[in-house]
Each structure stands twice: as C-alpha cells, then as structure tokens.
Amino acid sequence: MVCYGMARNHTTIYAALAANLLIAVIKFISGFATRSSAMLSEAVHSLVDTANQLLLLLGIRNSKRKPDASRPFGYGKELYFWSFIVSILIFGVGGSVSIYQGIMHLRNPPPLEDPTWNYVVLALSFLFDGSSLVIAAKEFNKVRGDSSWWMAIRRSKDPASFVVLFEDSAAVIGLLVVALFVYLGHLFNNPYFDGIASLIVGALLTIVSVLLARESRSLLMGEGISSDTQKQIIQLVNKDPAVLGVQHIFSTYQSPEEVMLMVMLSFKPDLDTEDIYDAIERIREAVKRAYPLVHYIIIQPEEAAVKK
C-alpha cells in the first residue's frame, strides 16, 4: 500500500522546534534594535513556526490515544485537525502580521540603520533553518519512494512530515528575500525596500498556508486509499473460493498509520451461514497480512447485482 506514512521518530519536528525558537528570539532582538520591519516579520514567522511545531506534537500525542466509548475508531484524526489549525495560523498570524508590518513600513519608513547585525542574524538563521530543512528533506525522502516531491506530498497521509517541509522551505526562501532587500535598501539608500521584503514574506506565507490547508482539509474530510490499492484489494478478495464478486469498496484514513476499510461483496449462493462466516474471517486476515495499515475491516455480504 502506497501511503507515505509517518516516520517512526519525530526528529524533524524537534529539530525545527529548537531552530525556530532560537531564531525567533534573535530576530526579535535584531528587529527592534535596527527598526527593520522585514526582520520583525521574519521574527513573527519563526515564532509562529515554533507554535506550529508544538501543535503538531500535541496532535501526534492525542492521535495515539486508545479507542474508547466516545471514539470507537480512535483519535487518529486529531493530527489532521491540528495540522489544519497550523495552516490557519500560518496565514492568520504569520502572513497577516508580515503584510501589516510591510504596509506600515511603507507608509512611515524609519531611517536606515547599520545593517551589520541584521546580516549576522540572517546568516545564523539561514544556518539553523537550513539545517532543519535538510533534516526534514532527508526524513521525507525516506518515504517518498520513486515519486516526485510534489506528488509524494499530495499522496502523503502524514501532515507532520510535509508541514515541517513546507515551513522550513518558506523560512529559507523568506530569509533569502529579506537578505537581498536589506542589501538593496542600503545599496540604494532606500528604506522602502525593507517594507517590500516584508510584503513578499507575507505573500509567501499566505501561499504556503493555502497549500497546507488544502492538503490537511482533504485528510480531515476522510481521504481514502488510492484507486490502485483498491484494485489490488479487490483482486485479493476475489481470489477467495467463497467470493462471487466485490460489489463496493470504501475506505478512509483514520490516521497516517490506520485505515478503515469496508468491503461489500457477494458470496456464492450454495454457502451456508457458517461457510460465509469462515470466509469473512479468512478474507479479513488475508487483507490485514497484505496491508498492515488496514486496522479496521468491515465485510458486508450483499446480493450480486442483476445485469439487465
């Protein structure tokens, strides 16, 4: 089953959390000291990313809770919910504040300050964010297989992996934009470049937010297994000697590592109740062996469709 599931550890998230927390503090100090709106926008960006990693860790922890009477199929979709919240925060806080800072700077640009400290902070930030991005890319590369990066992200059922990948990529691009416009601002002695950089960072965060919201929404709404996997399961079920044919198949991801599957099939008419029960157990075990991510299997007998 191609699922691009969850990594067994959370190295990516912890690395990003440590990097963003340290960078946020440094950027805020630099931004206030040099009165740079672009640097303050980057500081807010790093602070939002820090909060995002904490929310992802919360979602992962909650998704591991055992099923109970109120949630008989478990709490796996908690991760999808919190990843959706993360996408909203990136836009609502990160993107909006950056755009606001840029507009305010363009309306009332402060005089240019010595950019040396900004360059030091940007270099350190690039080092930390770049290292976090490399770790995230290596972890995601382990599960993407032969697919392209974008296709692997679209097929991934683990938002904890691609959210960090998106965030770190946006962070690195944002740092390059800010560094370029800080340089241009002092090269041409023009304070408006700083505000433009802040607007670009805000636009970048908005785009990332929309992409993440789209992917997270699809998972939250009940994304199922791929059509290729469905065909393989149908072929597997049809091999059982008691099966006349599969009528319908439904599925949904409860978490990156848990799939709920419902198969409606028709059995041969000469079977009695005990034979059908044995066949159902046999099919259930065969599917679980072939597809370990399928934790919940509902097999519903149904009369064969009559062809007219």
Describe the structure.
This protein has 308 residues and is mostly helical. The chain has 2 domains: 11-220, Alpha-lytic protease prodomain-like (Up-down Bundle), CATH 1.20.1510.10; 227-301, Cation efflux protein, cytoplasmic domain (Alpha-Beta Plaits). Helix content is 67%, strand content 10%. The protein has a 3-stranded mixed sheet with strand order 1-2-3. Helix 9 links the parallel strand 2 and strand 3. Helix 2 runs antiparallel to helix 6 and helix 6 (159-187) packs antiparallel against helix 7 (192-220). The model is unreliable at 2-8 (pLDDT under 50).
The helix-strand sequence is HHHHHHHHEEHE
Tell me, briefly, the overall form: elongated
Helices, by number, come to 9
Mean pLDDT: 87
Distance between the termini: 35 Å
Residue share in β-strands: 5-15%
What's the CATH architecture name of the largest domain? Up-down Bundle
Helix content: 55-70%
Count of spatially separate domains:
2
- CATH domain class of the largest domain: Mainly Alpha
List the quaternary state of the chains. Answer: single chain
* CATH topology name of the largest domain: Alpha-lytic protease prodomain-like
